[in-house]
Amino acid sequence: MYDHESFDTDISLYKKATTIAKVNFIGESSGGNLPVGNYHFYFKLADSDGNETDFIGESGLVTCYIGNLNDP
Asked: Which range of residues forms the domain containing residue 18?
């Protein structure tokens, strides 16, 4: 049975977030395969069945370059 007030959300092909998600930053790691350039990352949440929310966040500008912080 579906609730009349949440029917659109319950049957939607995309899961929609109705509250602000709390996300904790747990660290960073080195390495990867991104080409040199500037990027914006967009974040979604997914449940164990693979159902995804709409975009919930966007990063600031992230620059990927060859080298390290002291010697790009």
From this structure: 1-72
